[in-house]
Design goal:
Distance between the termini of chain A: 32 Å
Helix content of chain B: 10-25%
Mean pLDDT of chain A: 87
Number of helices of chain B: 3
Strand content of chain A: 15-25%
Mean pLDDT of chain B: 59
Largest sheet of chain A: 9 strands, mixed
Helix content of chain A: 10-25%
Order of helices and strands of chain A: EHEEHHEHEHHEHEEEHEEEHEH
Distance between the termini of chain B: 18 Å
Oligomer: heterodimer
Largest sheet of chain B: 5 strands, mixed
Low-confidence stretches of chain A: 331-338
Radius of gyration of chain A: 20 Å
Strand content of chain B: 35-45%
Number of strands of chain B: 11
Shape of chain A: globular
Structural class of chain A: alpha/beta
Low-confidence stretches of chain B: 1-28, 42-48, 167-201
Chain lengths: ~375, ~200
């Protein structure tokens, strides 16, 4: 893996826009993750559409606290576990993971930033796939999994899904369901975001129960994710560049299965993630060594773009969790939690090699202005 | 230092918008901030521009983080089509902010940064997604990191659409940052925007 590829014109801005949940933010238009939101993105000419996918009517004993299965009976294009944030559902105990397809289709969605109930319904995963296939678009799937609300003694929901192994268990159930229920010829229109290594994905998905066939697995596209996490740290707490490179190198070997590489850093000063902006990612070629930031390293090594979710707002109160809880991000250098500058378009563009990123955004209209 | 201490201890929640917590319109924005009309840059009706230097100097003199402008408009104050600026400011050597109305329909904020795209300086237009209208009594809260537009809703409430940029001016004191905040109006959508009490000129 010592091939260094030529780089594009660095003076030009050439970002690829991925419409996060479609285009949906404007008042009184389409709600997020709906067919209308996807149609709005397609009408603007975007080829990459992103959608959250949630498991429905998960099979278990009915309590969701002692589930022995966790397999979904269907998948919906939806962000939250709760249904009350932007649907006509008023019963907070009705969650997407305990609702059937017919129960969800009974619900109406609010129009963005209004109190008006629109005509749109929750879109099912297979409807989204059909739309992508028929319109020659790629859906980048943000597959959700069951996970607890809170931890330990403060856990209040889905407490049996607190550990990473249980979360992974749910995630693999959902991925298997999605792949197994998509025609092999249609898989070219899907890409799944993943934190996993390629070999782990392959082993998990192609093994029982509900194994994905090798033929289908080989057709799937992935978007490997890098994000600040303890898994990349040394025992002294510092980030380990070689661990990150090892993860990337594993994917570079299967580059044909990669749509793009997603990175995630919050700002230039965040000690937890600034490593991605430093020229610490080195390539040895003969007797010389060249070092780049992670964006350029990925491009030079793979020929694929790196990307980032610019984390713009979901609504009037910031970003929302799967449980419908709002969160406000902090400014850089101001202390406290957060320190997140990803919503700053001009700052993002100032970062080296960022002019050639895949931008997952809720505001494609802003990024459009910045492209040459 | 005294100023900084005052800033540190004086967070003020200026805005809570909901159907259950109603506040009066224009005047309550300034009241909540502890400001008087003499603290504001008050305009007459109609679009207006301030010279770059005057705003910058006032900000620097007051060591302020933001300032307010109050203004009253009708739609006819703006051109029927295209973008028309209402105000334009240079907040520091690198940042220019412009507030305007497009197609007599919605507000936009234009931001220029020191970044360049080739030989061209970058401008970025943020269309305000919320339907604030372009007629009414407006309050513009302007800082290095953000612009917030508040408008009297005609009764005892007001609507707000703040836009946050995340610019690193070393002066901003907002504790929150997003690309844009907009005014959802669900009953349960309480919203807080924190600005230091001393954020005024």
């Amino acid at each position: 893996m010592n091939t260094v590829r030529s780089i594009p014109d660095l003076s030009a801005t050439d970002v690829i826009i991925q419409a996060h949940r479609g285009i949906w933010g404007k008042r009184n238009t389409n709600q997020e993750n709906t067919i209308g939101a996807m149609q709005a993105a397609v009408s603007k000419g975007y080829y990459l559409l992103e959608s959250d996918i949630m498991p429905m009517k998960v099979q278990d004993d009915g309590t969701y606290s002692n589930s022995s299965s966790g397999k979904p009976t269907d998948l919906a294009c939806f962000h939250d576990f709760v249904l009350t944030r932007y649907t006509s559902e008023t019963n907070d105990n009705h969650r997407i993971y305990n609702r059937t397809k017919s129960q969800l289709k009974y619900l109406s969605l609010y129009k963005p930033r209004t109190e008006e109930v629109g005509t749109e319904k929750i879109m099912m995963f297979d409807e989204l796939v059909n739309y992508a296939v028929n319109n020659n678009r790629i859906i980048c799937v943000d597959m959700k999994n069951l996970e607890s609300k809170g931890a330990g003694s403060s856990c209040s929901q889905l407490c049996d899904w607190e550990t990473q192994s249980r979360k992974n268990e749910s995630l693999y159930h959902n991925l298997k369901f999605a792949i197994n229920n998509t025609a092999e010829s249609d898989l070219k229109n899907l890409a799944f975001k993943t934190y996993a290594e390629y070999e782990d994905l392959k082993n998990e998905l192609t093994s029982s129960p509900d194994a994905v066939s090798l033929s289908k697995f080989n057709k799937v596209l992935w978007a490997p994710l890098l994000a600040p996490a303890d898994k990349w740290k040394k025992t002294n707490g510092d980030y380990d560049v070689q661990l990150i490179q090892k993860y990337l190198d594993g994917w570079f070997l299967h580059n044909e299965s990669v749509l793009y590489y997603e990175t995630n850093f919050f700002n230039a000063y965040d000690q937890e993630s600034s490593i991605m902006l430093k020229n610490d990612f080195c390539v040895i070629s003969g007797s010389s060594t060249a070092c780049y930031n992670i964006m350029e390293y990925i491009y030079r090594m793979s020929g694929r773009r790196a990307g980032i979710f610019s984390e713009e707002p979901v609504g009037g109160k910031g970003t929302v969790s799967r449980w419908g809880d709002w969160n406000i991000k902090g400014l850089q250098n101001k202390g406290g939690s957060g320190k997140d500058r990803r919503g700053d378009h001009l700052w993002l563009l100032s970062q080296p090699f960022f002019k050639h990123a895949v931008i997952t955004t809720d505001r494609p209209d802003l990024w459009d202005q910045l492209n040459d | 230092m005294k100023k900084q201490n005052n800033i540190l201890i004086s967070f003020l929640c200026i805005l809570l918008i909901s159907f259950t917590f109603r506040v009066s319109a224009q005047s309550n924005v300034t009241t909540a901030l502890g400001m008087t009309t003499t603290d504001n840059l008050t305009t007459n009706s109609g679009p207006k521009s301030y010279g770059f230097g005057s705003v910058r100097n006032k900000l620097n003199t007051a060591n302020a983080d933001c300032f307010l402008i109050t203004a009253s408009y009708t739609a006819s104050d703006f051109a029927a089509s295209g973008k028309q600026k209402a105000y334009r400011f240079k907040l520091n050597n690198n940042t220019i902010l412009e507030i305007g109305v497009e197609d007599r329909d919605h507000w936009y904020i234009r931001r220029k940064a020191s970044l360049s795209n080739g030989s061209n300086k970058l401008w970025l237009d943020y269309e305000i997604y919320d339907d604030l209208g372009v007629s009414g009594n407006f309050t513009f809260i302007i800082g290095h990191y953000f612009i917030a537009i508040a408008v009297d809703d005609g009764s005892s409430n007001y609507k707000l659409a703040p836009v946050f940029f995340g610019m690193d001016s070393n002066l901003g004191t907002l504790i929150s940052h997003m690309g844009e905040f907009t005014g959802e109006t669900y009953n349960y959508d309480l919203r807080d925007v924190y600005i230091h009490r001393d954020s005024k000129i």
